[in-house]
Recover the amino acids of this structure.
């Protein structure tokens, strides 16, 4: 099955949106969630989630705390902050603007 | 505030970075394992799961680094690693490290020491509120060559009412006799306007200031005293405010005590260390009720500008005022005198005349630091070539050039910072003795401290030094040719040609800089030497001087010494008693102006006494420029005691007294200047004042450098002390005397004639002469010290380069010797190399010194800034030192054993 790389610059948006939908998640869950919700179309290079999450931690968009998984293993759970929610809005509108623009270009006769 | 929170998060990460890495590792491992498990469940074989999971995850190491980098601390971690590594390198070669650190410590220590003085005097604002509003006002009469000539009371009033200033206060330095405390003492008094303290905006530690609106005539019967006087003469009496003091027999109430550390803003030490402030409106007894406009008896004035007025704006308004006054009072302001009032920042008046010397010293110290840096750079380069292999290996293993350069620069920075710390440590230890080296009359001496700005300067200097000496070696390391370096290092060769060129260039620079410094020092030394050896025209050996001062009460009726006639019995009695003291061979009396080369007197003349302008009989005073001469009053024995010969005419005798016409002996210069090719005897002159009597010339003496060492021929008039009413008196005693003992004996003798008189200032004339050179001696010694250090460093530098070349060329020399080269030839080849460096450096330095030396013209005496003898002499010495420094390694080159040298291969 063919899987598409995610468009550059949208990783933050995907992570933010995923976290916004489901509250706390650890890295593996985020990766799976993105893949599942995109019906296996979007393929994140899973490792690159982690540097992205670090950057988001610095910006204060997410917080992290250690907890235990269903399988009783230690995992770091990420959660959206208020700033993160605001950032999600920003990224959303930015994304829509870009997609809208691209669509218009494509559909122009 | 977001960035602050972000910074806090980053910092937390920095502190817990081990934990952070572990967490990340764990997180990734979990991800990995969960993925594997999932794939196992979906039926992939165990071998494939791992590969698939890894493929989906990406490059773990790279991702870990990325995550780590995200926090932005990698520079810090690199730095920490570099510092650790650098410290290890320094420990590994302790000899090199010690030499480099010491060299830098010397430079930083010297530069920082001088900077602490510059900071306290030139940089820091004066310690009064809104100091930029304070200005000094000077009257100039450039048309007749008179500067800072004082202002008159009406002019002061004009300035007060001009609306340009908040306050204007004249300051008039004077001495006074303080009685009523433990023993009669000479005190330094400043006569000011009542608004003086309000103008400076300072508060006393006790009591109050003068009422700025007190305009009553005469002297206000109130004084403020300094903290020093309060403690010394009144035992820090807390009830001092209820007490009165007697100054020149007049009673004054003490209304305030100034805090310790308060210095009056003055040009010279005497004027800054004021002990008593008295206030007056400068008219009314004992001054004139209606002071005339032309009587410039107020020596100088200080003013505070209105807020927001710049000094330039104020100056143009003062210029307009001056112009309108000149129109209004044409008789008082003749056009040819070109009267001007000059405003300058008060700080300029306080520190202006030490600026040049201080900047010269800072420059000299900075040069030493720079030369030190060049030396260390050379050492580093020499070491870099032995470390070439290390650097090459690192590069081969993939170290980036920038990263390598950073590491090498970190090492240099470490060296220079350690040097800076060592320099500061030396400075802290020697602080006390270094402060004692400073001339006592340096302004703001008490403000000198190792302050934050000084520490900051030391840090800055260290960083700059580290960059300066670290840059060349670092650049070289970066442009290393890998293959060559790896090959060369195994053989231990001369290093790349480029590097050798850099090292030679550095030595040349070092030589040039040292030569500039050496020439500057020699010019100062020659000036000083010329001054010391200048024929004085008088004999200061075995002469002790003791001073006293007769009081000048405000009420003339209370004055016991009002006229020369009333003063004469006292003078005769003091003379008689002084002659009876054991060991005394000769005695003379004079006023303090008769003490040759007396610094405090020179200063006093500048700030309160004014000059002695004279006019001559039979000449039109208006058309002539007023002639300024030196004057002093003496007894006739003064000339024999001083060894100043009489050339023509006669000296004073008993027939000259206050009834007979006033007479004077003049020096040859006076005669030649004002009566060229004429017989001066019997000619008459007088002081440029309405009420002054004519003075007849009765004798001509030889010239003596009593007024100034630097200026040989100054017109000088000696008046008869019995015909003048001088209050500041000096007793001259010749003989083999113990200065301290004779001072005590004179004190009791003088005080048994009049118990209220202070006796002070016991000094031998030789000490006075030497003290007059104190400032010059200081700058000369400091610059000389710096220059010698520079010479030493330059010598070491060239020695280092040549011996390095020799040791690197052992092999080549061995071959030459084996092929039959004469050892003499080897010696001259090596020496020629050194000589070429030295001559190039000297040539550059020579030209540099030629260009720069005129900047110090003001500090020189007797030599021109481009004195050819100094220039060629110093250059020759320099090249000789360089040759010597090269001779040692050159000798070693000739002792190379060809067999050993060749086998070395």
């Amino acid at each position: 099955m063919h899987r598409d790389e995610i468009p550059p610059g949208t990783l933050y948006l995907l992570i933010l949106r995923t976290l916004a939908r489901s509250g706390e998640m650890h890295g593996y869950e985020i990766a799976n969630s993105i893949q599942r919700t995109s019906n296996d179309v979007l393929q994140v290079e899973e490792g690159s989630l982690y540097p992205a999450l670090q950057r988001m931690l610095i910006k204060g968009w997410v917080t992290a705390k250690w907890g235990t998984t269903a399988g009783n293993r230690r995992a770091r759970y990420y959660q959206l902050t208020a700033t993160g929610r605001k950032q999600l809005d920003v990224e959303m509108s930015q994304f829509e603007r870009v997609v809208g623009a691209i669509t218009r270009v494509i559909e122009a006769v | 505030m977001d960035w602050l929170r972000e910074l806090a998060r980053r910092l937390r990460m920095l502190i817990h970075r081990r934990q952070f890495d572990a967490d990340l590792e764990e997180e990734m491992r979990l991800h990995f394992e969960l993925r594997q498990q999932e794939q196992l469940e979906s039926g992939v074989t165990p071998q494939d799961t791992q590969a698939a999971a890894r493929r989906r995850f990406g490059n773990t190491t790279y991702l870990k680094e990325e995550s780590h980098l995200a926090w932005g601390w990698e520079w810090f971690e690199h730095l920490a690693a570099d510092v650790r590594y650098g410290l290890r390198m320094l420990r590994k070669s302790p000899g090199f490290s010690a030499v480099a650190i010491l060299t830098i410590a010397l430079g930083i220590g010297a530069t920082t020491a001088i900077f602490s003085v510059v900071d306290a005097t030139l940089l820091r604002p004066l310690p009064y509120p809104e100091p930029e509003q304070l200005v000094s006002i000077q009257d100039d009469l450039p048309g007749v060559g008179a500067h800072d000539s004082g202002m008159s009371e009406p002019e002061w009033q004009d300035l007060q009412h001009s609306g340009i200033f908040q306050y204007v206060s004249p300051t008039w330095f004077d001495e006074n006799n303080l009685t009523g405390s433990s023993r009669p003492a000479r005190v330094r008094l400043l006569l000011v306007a009542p608004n003086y303290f309000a103008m400076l905006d300072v508060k006393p530690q006790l009591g109050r200031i003068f009422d700025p609106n007190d305009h009553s005539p005469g002297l206000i019967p109130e004084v403020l005293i300094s903290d020093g006087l309060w403690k010394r003469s009144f035992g820090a009496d807390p009830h001092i405010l209820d007490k009165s003091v007697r100054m020149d027999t007049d009673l004054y109430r003490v209304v305030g005590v100034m805090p310790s550390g308060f210095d009056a803003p003055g040009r010279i030490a005497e004027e800054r260390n004021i002990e008593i402030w008295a206030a007056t409106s400068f008219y009314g007894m004992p001054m004139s009720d209606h002071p005339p406009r032309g009587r410039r008896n107020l020596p100088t004035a200080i003013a505070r500008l209105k807020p927001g007025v710049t000094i330039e704006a104020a100056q143009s308004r003062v210029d307009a005022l001056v112009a309108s006054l000149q129109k209004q009072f044409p008789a008082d302001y003749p056009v040819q005198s070109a009267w001007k009032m000059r405003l300058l920042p008060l700080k300029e008046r306080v520190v202006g005349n030490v600026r040049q010397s201080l900047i010269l010293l800072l420059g000299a110290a900075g040069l030493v630091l720079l030369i030190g840096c060049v030396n260390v750079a050379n050492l580093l380069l020499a070491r870099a070539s032995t470390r070439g292999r290390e650097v090459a290996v690192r590069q081969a293993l993939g170290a980036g050039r920038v990263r390598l350069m950073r590491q090498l620069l970190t090492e240099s920075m470490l060296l220079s910072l350690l040097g800076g710390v060592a320099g500061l440590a030396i400075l802290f230890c020697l602080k006390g003795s270094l402060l004692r080296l400073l001339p006592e009359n340096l302004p703001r001496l008490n403000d000198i401290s190792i302050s934050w700005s000084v520490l900051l300067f030391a840090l800055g200097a260290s960083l700059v030094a580290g960059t300066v000496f670290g840059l060349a070696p670092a650049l070289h390391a970066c442009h290393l040719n890998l293959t060559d370096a790896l090959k060369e290092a195994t053989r231990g060769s001369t290093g790349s040609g480029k590097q050798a060129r850099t090292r030679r260039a550095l030595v040349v620079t070092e030589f040039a800089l040292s030569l500039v410094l050496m020439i500057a020092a020699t010019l100062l030394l020659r000036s000083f030497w010329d001054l010391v050896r200048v024929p004085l025209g008088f004999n200061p050996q075995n002469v002790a001087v003791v001073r006293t001062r007769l009081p000048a009460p405000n009420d003339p009726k209370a004055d016991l010494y009002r006229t020369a006639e009333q003063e004469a019995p006292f003078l005769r009695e003091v003379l008689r008693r002084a002659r009876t003291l054991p060991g005394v061979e000769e005695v003379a009396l004079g006023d303090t102006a008769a003490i040759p080369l007396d610094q405090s007197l020179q200063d006093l003349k500048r700030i309160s006494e004014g000059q002695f302008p004279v006019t001559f009989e039979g000449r039109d005073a208006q058309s002539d420029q007023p002639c300024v001469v030196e004057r002093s009053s003496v007894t006739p024995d003064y000339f024999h005691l001083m060894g100043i010969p009489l050339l023509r005419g006669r000296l004073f005798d008993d027939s000259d007294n206050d009834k007979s016409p006033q007479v004077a002996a003049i020096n040859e210069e006076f005669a030649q200047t004002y009566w060229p090719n004429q017989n001066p005897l019997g000619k008459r002159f007088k002081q440029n004042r309405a009420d002054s009597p004519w003075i007849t010339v009765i004798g001509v003496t030889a010239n003596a450098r009593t007024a100034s060492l630097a200026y040989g021929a100054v017109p000088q008039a000696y008046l008869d002390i019995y015909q003048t009413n001088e209050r500041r008196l000096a007793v001259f005693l010749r003989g083999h005397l113990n200065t301290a003992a004779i001072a005590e004996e004179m004190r009791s003798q003088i005080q048994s004639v009049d118990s209220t008189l202070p006796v002070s200032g016991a000094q031998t004339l030789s000490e006075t002469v030497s003290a007059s050179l104190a400032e010059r001696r200081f700058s000369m010694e400091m610059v000389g010290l710096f220059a010698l250090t520079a010479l030493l460093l330059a010598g070491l530098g060239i020695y280092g380069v040549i011996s390095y070349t020799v040791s690197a060329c052992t092999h080549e020399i061995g071959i030459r010797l084996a092929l039959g080269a004469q050892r003499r030839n080897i010696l001259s080849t090596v020496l020629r190399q050194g000589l070429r460096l030295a001559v190039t450096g000297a040539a550059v330095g020579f030209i540099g010194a030629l260009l720069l030396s005129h900047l110090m013209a003001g500090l020189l005496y007797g030599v021109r800034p481009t004195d050819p003898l100094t220039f060629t002499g110093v250059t020759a010495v320099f090249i000789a030192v360089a040759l010597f420094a090269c001779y040692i390694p050159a000798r070693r080159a000739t002792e190379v054993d060809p067999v050993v040298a060749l086998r070395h291969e």
